[in-house]
Amino acid sequence: MPQTSLLHKLVEQQVDRSTYAEAFRCGDEVVSYGGLDELANRIAHRLLADGVRPEDRVAICLRRGPNLIATILGVLKAGACYVPIDPAYPASRISYLARDSRARLVITERELASRVSEVRTVRCIDDLDLATAPAHRPDVRVDPRCLAYIIYTSGSTGRPKGVAIEHRSAAALLRWARDAFPWPQLDGVLAATSVCFDLSVFEIFAPLAWGGRFVLVPDVLQILRLPPDAKVRLVNTVPSAMSELLGVGGLPADLAIVCLAGEALTSALVERVGRLPHVRRILNLYGPSEDTTYSTCAELESADPGTPSIGAPLPGTRAYVLDEQLRPVPPGAVGELFLAGAGLARAYFGRPAETASRFLPDPFDRTPGGRMYRTGDRVRQRTDRQLAFVGRTDEQVKVRGYRIELGEVAAALQAVPGIRQAAATVVTGPGGDTRLVGYVVGDAVVDRAAVVAHLRTRIPGHLIPAHIVGLATLPTTPNGKVDRAALPPPQWSTGTRAVGTSTPSGEDEVHATSSAVWQELLGVWPGRTDDFFALGGDSLSATRAISRLRSRLHADLAVGALFEHPTFDSFTAHVRAAPRRPARPASITRAVAGPLSFGQQRLWFLDQLTPEGTAYLITAVVEVRSMGTAAQLEAALGDVVARHEAFRTSFHWRGDAPMRQAHPRATVPVTRVAVAATVDLQEQLRHVAADTAATPMDLETAPLLRCRIVVVAGRPVALVFTTHHIVFDAWSLNVFVRELGSCYERRIQGSPLAPTGSYATVDAGTRQREWLASAAGRAALDAMVASLRTAPHFLALPTDRPRPVDRGHSGAFLLSALPASAANAASAIARRHGATLYMVGLAAFAALLGTWSGQGQMVIGTAFAGRTDLATEEHIGCFVNTVALCIDARPDLGFGVLLAQVRETALFGLAHQDVPFEKVVERLQLPRTTGHQPLVQVAFGVQNTAPATYEGATVGLRAWEVQSQDARLDLTLWLEQKDSQVEALWTYSTELFGPATVARLHHRFGHLLAAAVEDEHRPITELVADSDQTYRDKERR
């Protein structure tokens, strides 16, 4: 058949080849090519009788089903352009889209007619009497340059804008799809994307144009509910949805091709998908609607290191990486991506000014009238000529996969009665997630619930801010524009239910405050029967919730209260019944000199013993995305040091004890490292980090911080820094990144953040001593010592090598994911027992060590953040405290019995986490030896802090701590939940153990968990014996 560039003609050619073959299915209904063609022909004839002509716009507002697909095809057969409208949109938006597209008519259903009542011409498909309409193909002349569809995207002016796509551009996409996915790869495409988004064009028309088949579903999660005969072979979705799919049940066995698009893709997700044995291809697809769905493509391998690229341009597409003067940047340098070629849209419909600003003359194309599209995306070309995505240049953002123009959100907020001014931005929430935030200036106190209720009638849900912040005025730049970098972050610590002080109707102060705290920490407003831990809470967030409620309600709450009362109703009842205590004055001590905390004191003595040691240095890499300079980043670093006293603190011997000395200012030693664009950046960062961490740090000289700025082609791409644990802990990394991001943005804007007393170091040493001297502190210390009085103070693990008399810190680590069966088992056991991943993991760790050592009772250390005082949450410093837990893991116990005991022990530790470990060791009067650490030689923990990231208007940061090769203890295990996966990090002393031993421990740990969920009454010794047998079987294979 002759080649055509018309969408409907491509489908008709397949109809003539495969009239009776299945075109698509929806639920139980299977539609053949011939049946689809006939229904579309009848619809086209009715449209023509209604006066529809080529290039007329016909809006389609139908629910997902066969009629939707046939109507789209029928509109094209009539020579018209289809404009998809989601029936779930607010009525005002439906009316706007129909008016803005100047639709000749709207096709809907009788049940939906009330939603389009404001539109002048409406046709209900139920009333078209299609049975009597002609069934042959209408004879309508359509040029490939005619419009095929208009897809509306978020608009920067506050109005959505329609991207007008011609037939020839869509046909070019389909020709690429034919070559990229040869038969039978298009036989079973999941069509899960709304027709209002351009991914649907690929999902529907690629199979229909080339004789394939698609499965129409409401959303991508429905793939898990499809019958086996659906045989979905290809899924096309956003990474966040794919991650959710893997988390709730994996992918069907027929699925062979996974296409990911619409969001930044991580190598971790690629690796997870690649581990599925039936998945043969993973593609990362990039492209704006303005270039017809896809512009570049990368075929990925799960073993590829580093961040996945967005690939190379599709056939017929050209990609330019240009600077601000539209000049090509050298390979490896960051520039803005411009696209040209066959896929470019005609225009923004009815928006000539916006079209001219984004579709520019192509200076590299000799064809008259050649154009290129300014994407607003910043990329760099790698040495393999693949493109790497870096970030955005404008106000367009991505939240949960949705492309959002902040101007549209601001315009919707400003349209709310009583709001005079509004702005919007995205911030990193307390859980590390990206949240959309609205800022409003109102005539009076505005109830957030009322604002949201109004927005729900005007804009789709993904455009509604998660938080509303009330301001007296909006900050502006010198030219009068809103200064987004100066917008204050939401006050997570004070709740965001209302802009003002009103309490929602029917709620008392306890209900309102508790609800706000749950929302801050979990990201959702709780229902009466919601369970804190089922919503994603853990030990850390439970501790933070209690500290917030203690501060706001002055309630005398135990740290473990949420474990005893996990549902919202039962918890608020407990809070109401709790006694109240006097409010403590909110003051931050700014003593120039003062005593060390007991934890700092121990670190200071260790440093004195081995001043040449580096075991207690912390090194991290902060990856940087911005348009700022290295000088501005260095200045921002100085601002952070000025705002956080910890970095400006030195440590000295004064009289008979070490003391800390705070300095008014300190200059950070910063060096710049220029890296060629052609080298492997991640590998280079590891080298720089290792070099930065190799030199000991003098605790008597402030600042206790040294930095290197890594520069590529004159732009900063990373900050590598080393500090000492005596002033910095794991929690501090998140605070540091948030502070650095804010200061860097303000430096770029030319309005640096000033030092402020609120960021002075809390005098932890003095407060700790005051608390220990109080009745509560003395009782807590007595209880902790009593719990350990009869515990064995040494755990004699079988070692591969004799324990040296003087054990050093030489170590290694094993990082490996637990098998899915083990991760799922841990979650199931936790739900069954009202426990957390930490408690289940601790029980399994104790069971493993008990059977391995033959020592049923043992002490296991666990690290608590030590920030039970709300005032410490936004401070850089060393607050972490080790809590020693005595656990009885006799081999004859069942795992369920052990877990119940461990749960109680863990709650005891949680309630006593402020008791300094050093004071416990001192009270126990343990003999000291250089061969092992006192009391605690093994430790366990769960990493449950949010990723250290910052996403602002002009700056993006992502930090990760460099894993140390030092082993402070004999053996430690850290678990970290990543989506549905649980990663295990084993750190071990190489003076005692070899890698094979630790690999066996990892296997036994995972198998023990998987076996425990099947029969938690079996003795621990049998569960471990089974794991040993499976490991031996595995080695023999």
TrEMBL record:
<dbReference type="GO" id="GO:0047527">
    <property type="term" value="F:2,3-dihydroxybenzoate-serine ligase activity"/>
</dbReference>
<dbReference type="InterPro" id="IPR006162">
    <property type="entry name" value="Ppantetheine_attach_site"/>
</dbReference>
<dbReference type="InterPro" id="IPR036736">
    <property type="entry name" value="ACP-like_sf"/>
</dbReference>
<dbReference type="InterPro" id="IPR009081">
    <property type="entry name" value="PP-bd_ACP"/>
</dbReference>
<dbReference type="InterPro" id="IPR020845">
    <property type="entry name" value="AMP-binding_CS"/>
</dbReference>
<dbReference type="GO" id="GO:0043041">
    <property type="term" value="P:amino acid activation for nonribosomal peptide biosynthetic process"/>
</dbReference>
<dbReference type="InterPro" id="IPR042099">
    <property type="entry name" value="ANL_N_sf"/>
</dbReference>
<dbReference type="GO" id="GO:0009239">
    <property type="term" value="P:enterobactin biosynthetic process"/>
</dbReference>
<dbReference type="Pfam" id="PF00550">
    <property type="entry name" value="PP-binding"/>
</dbReference>
<dbReference type="Pfam" id="PF13193">
    <property type="entry name" value="AMP-binding_C"/>
</dbReference>
<dbReference type="GO" id="GO:0005829">
    <property type="term" value="C:cytosol"/>
</dbReference>
<dbReference type="InterPro" id="IPR025110">
    <property type="entry name" value="AMP-bd_C"/>
</dbReference>
<dbReference type="InterPro" id="IPR001242">
    <property type="entry name" value="Condensation_dom"/>
</dbReference>
<keyword id="KW-0597">Phosphoprotein</keyword>
<feature type="domain" description="Carrier">
    <location>
        <begin position="505"/>
        <end position="579"/>
    </location>
</feature>
<feature type="compositionally biased region" description="Polar residues">
    <location>
        <begin position="492"/>
        <end position="505"/>
    </location>
</feature>
<dbReference type="InterPro" id="IPR010071">
    <property type="entry name" value="AA_adenyl_dom"/>
</dbReference>
<feature type="region of interest" description="Disordered">
    <location>
        <begin position="486"/>
        <end position="509"/>
    </location>
</feature>
<dbReference type="Pfam" id="PF00668">
    <property type="entry name" value="Condensation"/>
</dbReference>
<protein>
    <submittedName>
        <fullName>Nonribosomal peptide synthetase</fullName>
    </submittedName>
</protein>
<dbReference type="GO" id="GO:0031177">
    <property type="term" value="F:phosphopantetheine binding"/>
</dbReference>
<dbReference type="InterPro" id="IPR045851">
    <property type="entry name" value="AMP-bd_C_sf"/>
</dbReference>
<dbReference type="InterPro" id="IPR000873">
    <property type="entry name" value="AMP-dep_synth/lig_dom"/>
</dbReference>
<dbReference type="Pfam" id="PF00501">
    <property type="entry name" value="AMP-binding"/>
</dbReference>
<dbReference type="InterPro" id="IPR023213">
    <property type="entry name" value="CAT-like_dom_sf"/>
</dbReference>
<dbReference type="GO" id="GO:0009366">
    <property type="term" value="C:enterobactin synthetase complex"/>
</dbReference>
<dbReference type="InterPro" id="IPR020806">
    <property type="entry name" value="PKS_PP-bd"/>
</dbReference>
<keyword id="KW-0596">Phosphopantetheine</keyword>
<dbReference type="GO" id="GO:0008610">
    <property type="term" value="P:lipid biosynthetic process"/>
</dbReference>
